[in-house]
Amino acid sequence: MGKIGTPERVKLIAGLISNNTKLLSDIRRPFERILANSIDFESPVIEFDKTDYYQEEMGPALKRKFYSFKKLVSLDGIHAVKIKTNALEKRFTKLGKRRVNIDPGYIDMAKLVLFSTKDYTHRIHISKGIYAEVTLHYKNGSFTAWPWTYPDYRTKEYLDIMHKIREIYKEQLRAS
């Protein structure tokens, strides 16, 4: 029988999508407040052009930005992160349409996990209508996609960002 242990704390990340690049930066402070956690990494703004899924609601010329958060967190109750980011999205809604989409998740040494409110065959319910998906796994020194990984998360640009965040996380674990 295996011994039950406590999982390592993880590094919160979030990918934001909007056609308003100013909003992608302006949301930084409210984001830090709702998560009670300061941002320690901010990616450059990236074209979000691998799908048109959000265009009807948010308009054309969408951009993406990633953030990671300094304080490592426990997996206990982590579903609350998605609930809080959904509330933040709602605060920035105009005329019933989101102006920003926030995809939160976490990185540990073995994977990138994203949270969703939508169930699917490869997602697991974690609590209160929030699902978790292992979007990338770390193998042979690199993040690797699964068959269900979104096309943008397969790009070198995104993988490089996830590697940078993982390196920050690795250093944090060493220091603790």
Distance between the termini: 29 Å
Structural class: alpha+beta
- Largest sheet composition: 9 strands, antiparallel
SSE pattern, N- to C-terminal: EHHEEHEHEEEEEH
Shape: globular
Number of helices: 5
Low-confidence stretches: none
Describe the SSE topology.
Blueprint: E1 11-18, H1 21-26, H2 28-35, E2 39-42, E3 46-47, H3 55-58, E4 63-69, H4 79-91, E5 101-107, E6 111-116, E7 124-127, E8 130-139, E9 142-145, H5 156-175
Explained architecture:
Strands 1, 2, 3, 4, 5, 6, 7, 8 and 9 form a 9-stranded antiparallel beta sheet that branches. Helices cover 29% and strands 30% of the residues. The chain has one domain. By secondary structure, it is α+β, with helices and mostly antiparallel strands. It contains 5 helices and 9 strands, in the order E-H-H-E-E-H-E-H-E-E-E-E-E-H. It starts with 10 loop residues before the first strand and ends with a helix. Helix 2 packs antiparallel against helix 4. The longest helix has 20 residues.
Short description:
This protein is of the alpha+beta class. The chain has 5 helices and 9 strands, in the order βααββαβαβββββα.
Summary keywords:
single chain, 176 residues, alpha+beta, 9 strands, 30% strand
